[in-house]
Amino acid sequence: MLDLQLAIISRITDFVPGLTTIANPSVLAAVREIGPLLPACIVIPGGGEPAEQPIPSLPLIETQEWDVVVIIAHQSRDSEDGLTEQIAGDFMRDILKALHGWKNGAQPQKHGFIYTGRSQPNYNLGYAEFPMTFTAKAIVGS
Question: What are the E-state strand segments in the chain?
Fold first, then answer.
């Protein structure tokens, strides 16, 4: 049911240059210092709900949410304000271009990924997280 995660990671790896780390959340499990991983993109499975099934004998389709979180080390220069956000925004635009409308051929999908929005950034000591959400209708049973 979560087969699309590796495909999303691979797509971002192929189409978004400049990220040091592109992975699932497990990469953060034993990290004491996040700095060496940044800038990073973490692909997190969100919720999933069965899509409407008009004919029960057809394969089961699930609407899946996928959070793609860009993590950037805080940047500052006396002459510039908002540099962290500018860098994050550039990565987010590249991720949007790579994923929105993309349909992975290896795992069955009813339609391509749809960008559904972004949450408020989360600011921490030393870094900031910028989450984006995509949905896909994946065929999870046949």
Answer: 21-23, 40-50, 60-73, 109-118, 122-124, 127-141
Q: Are strands 127-141 and 21-23 parallel, antiparallel or unpaired?
A: unpaired
- Sequence letter at residue 22: I
pTM of the model: 0.89
Write out pLDDT tens, residues 34-72: 999 999 999 999 999 988 776 777 778 889 999 999 999
Bridge partners for 73 per DSSP: 127
Contact present, 41 and 16 (Cβ < 8 Å): yes
Q: What share of the chain is helix, strand, coil (3-state, %, to 5)?
A: 25, 40, 35
- Residue ranges per structural domain of the chain: 4-126
| Cα dihedral across residues 84, 87, 93, 96: positive or negative | negative
Alpha-helical regions (H) of 74-127: 83-99
pLDDT digits (tens, 9 = 90+) for 112-142: 899 999 999 999 999 999 999 999 988 776 6
